[in-house]
Write a structure and sequence with these properties.
α12 runs parallel beside α14 (about 375-390). It contains 14 helices and 17 strands. It is globular, with a radius of gyration of 21 Å. A hairpin with a 2-residue loop joins β13 (about 325-330) and β14 (about 335-340). With about 400 residues, the protein is of the alpha/beta class. The structure holds pyridoxal-5'-phosphate (PLP).
């Protein structure tokens, strides 16, 4: 059996995969079992932001793997403490909870928001408002939070206490808000929903509404955070600060890690025994996270991300002028969506045949989330392929 057959036989069929098995990666490039090299404009869905097998991250992983991999959260480890301190130093937050994935980070955020009010005796305040089109994960709470029906099929009954309102529609949110709402949760740029940025005014209004009503504001920055949008966290572009933020994806440049960051006030919702995760914040994962954060948070690196994002967008906008199939180009930094009238899946497949990895959402939007180390020459090569395909 080859890799494809073996996978289809022995791995649960939850993914629609493209027909290649990869064996190695370096920077912008992935190599398959036949030795064909692909240019990666997806980075493992916004995960390998420093490129595949970044030498400094690899060295940090190798060094830590030789020292200590896991001891449990019954004890202290320095890499975990160091990464928490570095995340706090680089954000609005005062404390961090570590998990292993985006869904687990969002679970922690949802649990913290509920428990924050329940500890204060406000037991009626448990509702969470999220956005239509949002994506927050595949666990029961996070798929309930997700504003897309397709992830919910077959899993009913869902958790009580979640409401969904249209994104970027402040009156709809205001109407749904009442004193039973403990939190409003949203992505500053909806990723899986089709790369849809929040309107700046909307985010400010949401913040003000939460302040007025006392609800906590949760930003899911699992896809938008860690430099993806050109600032370390996307909410910095909007100058709107949440009470709780979730991270995962690029935080370990491929090593599984999730984090929930909270203000000191919100973090009072947790106490010893209230939440936990066996693998949360292992020395191995946090050593990878610490190195990744140090490299991405460099202001010069982030300035380059903004510059390359602007260049990429401008090149795609040129395609919009010459191809009537292109309806919109949008996004922030190096999280960019190009909406077509239809047929995005076919374009993605054609790109793959020509050695470029991109992604398509709902057959309408081409999503580009390359490693943040992408060069303008890589962008030019992809844009020329897109030009010929469109
Ligand atoms: C915004 C957002 N939140 C949560 C998740 C879930 O993350 P994970 O797949 O690591 O559980 C994703 C994954 O795509 C995401 O994009």
């Amino acid at each position: 059996m080859d890799t494809l057959e073996k996978t289809e036989t022995f791995v649960c069929p939850t993914y629609a995969r493209q027909g290649k098995a990869f064996v190695s990666g370096s920077g912008m490039f992935l190599t398959d079992e036949d030795g064909q090299v692909f240019t990666d404009f997806l980075a493992g869905i916004a995960v390998c932001s420093l490129g595949h097998c970044h030498p400094e991250v690899t060295a940090a992983i190798q060094d830590q793997a030789g020292k200590l991999v896991h001891v449990s959260n019954l004890f202290y480890t320095l890499p975990q403490a160091d990464l928490a301190q570095a995340l706090v130093a680089n954000s609005f937050a005062d404390q961090v909870f570590f998990g292993n994935s985006g869904a687990e980070a969002n679970e922690a955020a949802i649990k913290l928001a509920r428990r924050y009010f329940q500890r204060k005796g406000d037991t009626d305040r448990y509702r969470i408002i999220t956005m239509k089109g949002s994506f927050h994960g595949r666990t029961m709470a996070t798929l309930t939070a997700t504003g897309q029906d397709k992830v919910k099929q077959g899993f009913y009954p869902l958790l009580p206490g979640f409401s969904h309102v249209p994104f970027n529609d402040f009156p709809a949110l205001e109407q749904t808000m009442d004193d039973t709402v403990c939190a409003v949760m949203l992505e500053p740029v909806q990723g899986e929903g089709g790369v849809i940025p929040a309107d700046p005014e909307y985010l400010s209004e949401v913040r003000a509404l939460c302040d007025r009503t006392g609800a906590l504001l949760i930003f899911d920055e699992i896809q938008t955070g860690m430099g993806r949008c050109g600032t370390l966290f996307a909410h910095e572009i909007y100058q709107v600060t949440p009470d709780i933020m979730t991270l995962a994806k690029a935080l370990g440049n491929g090593v599984p890690i999730g984090a929930m960051l909270a203000t000191g006030e919100a973090a009072t919702g947790f106490e010893p025994g209230s939440h936990g995760s066996t693998f949360g914040g292992t020395p191995l994962a946090t050593a990878a996270g610490l190195k990744t954060l140090a490299l991405i948070s460099d202001p010069a690196f982030l300035a380059r991300v903004r510059e390359k994002g602007r260049y990429f967008k401008s090149q795609l906008q040129k395609l919009k002028k010459t191809h009537s199939r292109v309806k919109d180009v949008r996004g922030a930094g190096l999280l960019i969506g190009m909406e077509l009238d239809a047929g995005a899946d076919a374009v993605k497949t054609q790109c793959f045949k020509k050695g470029f990895i991109i992604n398509a959402i709902q057959d309408k939007v081409l999503r580009f989330a390359p490693p943040l180390i992408v060069e303008t020459a890589d962008i030019d090569r992809l844009v020329s392929v897109l030009d010929s395909l469109l």
